[in-house]
Amino acid sequence: MNIVRFQPRSISLAACLIAMVGMVNLASAADATNRTGKEIVTTICIACHGEGKDGAPRIGNTKDWAPRAKYGLNQLSKNAMEGVRKMPAHGGEASLSDLEVERAIAYMVSGGKASDKDKTSGKVTHGTGEQIVASACGNCHREGSNGAPRIGDAEAWRPRLAKGINELVSSAVHGHNKMPSRGGFVNLSDADLRAAVSYMASKSSAPAN
Ligand code: HEC
Ligand code: HEC
Question: Which ligand sits closest to the CA of 146?
Answer without folding.
Answer: 2
